[in-house]
Design goal:
The chain has 248 residues and is α/β, with parallel strands linked by helices. The protein has a single domain, classed as Stationary-phase Survival Protein Sure Homolog, Chain: A (3-Layer(aba) Sandwich). The protein has helices spanning 14-23, 67-78, 104-114, 133-150, 215-219, 236-243, and strands spanning 2-6, 28-34, 53-57, 60-63, 85-92, 119-125, 156-163, 171-175, 187-191, 197-201, 223-230. α2 (67-78) runs parallel beside α3 (104-114). It is globular.
């Protein structure tokens, strides 16, 4: 099995190193990752300036672009093989619920799927630096083997979240659905030293609705969560409703 590894925390991130170590046991690997942290860039693709790739080892490259750029450059130009699988992560911090569309980690997996390559994203659910990357990496290796032998449904990729717990406290994986974030005024609004207003988006707490069957519900109870995501975001049940509108 030939595996391309990328992430959005940058090529030197602890999570990527742990992932590389585990996936080397199950396949031949290549790494194409951003040269610095690119978290929350979503599915951004760089179009308006050139990209540079620095070769840091055999089939290992640092790119001054986004995770989506890395998958594109990696597959089309940089690495010496066509990957059977693209694995993105291990992200420092969960990618749960509505947050998946902000996520560079998840978007890299989406990009690979758009290119017809099976893929999954792995994140370690932590508010800090994260400790048990090894558990997430070992699970990623097991999942890689399962994806390689079973394949994935059409246009589908996996969003995996692993709780940052001791090995013995991690419960078996559950297949989940995407959860919902609780939006509750998490924009800080203050004055800078020159008296001008600034805004800072974000909250440190994991504010998700505790809905049965969701990714959040699983990881908050110590389970590994696997959510199958689909490229097609169409809400089919709304098509007939919208068709009834009088739009001329
Ligand atoms: Mn990240």
């Amino acid at each position: 099995m030939k595996i391309l590894i990328t992430n959005d925390d940058g090529i030197n991130a602890k999570g990527l190193q742990a992932l590389v170590k585990a996936l080397e046991e199950v396949g031949e690997i290549a790494i194409v990752a951003p040269d610095r942290e690119r978290s929350a860039v979503g599915h951004a693709l760089t179009l308006h300036h050139p990209l540079r790739a620095t070769e840091i080892g055999a089939n290992r490259f640092a790119v001054d672009g986004t995770p989506t750029d890395c998958v594109n450059l990696g597959v089309h130009n940089l690495i010496s093989f066509k990957p059977d699988l693209v694995v993105s992560g291990i992200n420092r911090g969960g990618n749960l619920g509505d947050d998946v569309t902000y996520s560079g980690t998840v978007s890299a997996a989406m990009e690979a799927t758009l290119m017809g390559i099976p893929s999954f994203a792995v994140s370690l659910v932590t508010d800090g630096e994260g400790s048990n990357y090894k558990a997430a990496a070992d699970f990623a290796a097991r999942l890689a083997t399962a994806v390689y032998s079973n394949g994935l449904p059409e246009d589908t990729f996996l969003n995996v979240n692993v709780p940052d717990l001791h090995d013995s406290d991690i419960h078996p994986p559950l297949i989940t659905r995407q959860g919902r974030r609780r939006y509750d005024g998490t924009i800080v609004d203050k004055l800078d030293p020159r008296g001008r207003k600034y805004y800072w988006i974000g909250s440190v707490e994991q504010a998700f609705l505790d809905l049965e069957g969701t990714d959040y519900h699983a990881v908050s109870r110590g389970h590994i969560s696997i959510t199958p995501l689909h490229l097609d975001l169409t809400n089919y049940s709304s098509v007939s409703i919208l068709k009834q509108w009088d739009l001329g």
